[in-house]
Design a protein that fits this description.
By secondary structure, this protein is α/β, with parallel strands linked by helices. It is 23% helix and 28% strand.
Length: 261
């Protein structure tokens, strides 16, 4: 069965900016979904900010193996309840790909527990991405490096926790470097952050970028595997201990009472 992926895009500049519309007539989310659907092993659909529940109702997320997240202008417009819904699904085992300016999304900052801040410059400069972990599945078929003729510079320091793996490092024409492809694990879910993707440049039409996105979806997907009840904090009374247990000290809670949150 094909991996079930959703490409989430805020779809603001895609609709409002003439240049972005000319590059991505079906929206960036549509272009990314098209790239994923070039693989017979992936079935990708889209969701956008303006849809009911941002296109991410609970039953749809429950059927999703990997969610891709692109946001920029409207991070603050994302409902906090939907953010918690996505985070919980990641804890349960759903894969997450966070793209470009999604580094400042509520979802990514919530999962990273940090500022996720960086330096940046919008100058259309050349970006060279080095596959410094060439044996990683996400880098399969990429080669030692590839170049994007026009890109937005993202520079260090990048305010994220130490990643599990660094797959790509970027060099920019202006001299900066950036850890542009990082993996993380949160609960049962695998996360990949990939920095290229500024909306005024045709980054998601690049063949190598599209290969990386497909590779990353397959790496992040764990169909049928789910950590259950990840947000619960059940009380296990003394009488339900696996071994005979004598209660020896005072306590605040009654058996079965919910814990403080």
């Amino acid at each position: 069965m094909a991996v079930q992926a959703i490409v989430w895009g805020e779809n603001v500049h895609d609709r409002e900016n003439e240049l972005v519309r000319s590059i991505y007539p079906d929206g960036m989310h549509g272009c990314i979904a098209e790239a994923l659907n070039e693989s017979p092993d992936i079935s990708a659909t889209t969701a956008t900010l303006e849809q009911d529940e941002h296109g991410l109702p609970a039953d749809r997320l429950a059927r999703t193996d990997v969610l891709l997240w692109w946001g920029h202008k409207a991070h603050g417009d994302v409902d906090d309840g939907i953010v918690e819904r996505v985070v919980e699904r990641v804890w349960e085992g759903m894969g997450l790909l966070v793209l470009h300016s999604g580094h400042f999304s509520k979802v990514f900052k919530r999962l990273m527990g940090s500022s996720c801040a960086l330096t940046w410059r919008e100058a259309g400069e050349r970006e060279r991405l080095w596959a410094i972990n060439p044996a990683h599945p996400i880098a399969a078929g990429v080669g030692p490096y590839f170049e994007l003729e026009q890109s937005e510079m993202y520079g260090e320091p990048f305010g994220v926790p130490e990643p599990l793996e660094t797959v790509f490092v970027s060099w920019y024409e202006g001299g900066e470097v950036f850890r542009s492809g990082l993996t993380f694990q949160r609960g049962g879910g695998r996360i990949f952050y990939f920095s290229p993707g500024h909306e005024v440049y045709p980054v998601y039409h690049d063949a190598t970028v599209r290969t990386i996105l497909r590779n990353a979806v397959m790496w992040a997907a764990k169909p049928g595997i789910r950590w259950e009840n990840v947000a619960d904090a059940p009380n296990r009374p003394v009488g339900e201990a696996l071994e005979p247990l004598e209660e020896k000290g005072p306590r605040l809670h009654e058996d079965g009472e919910a814990g403080y949150r």
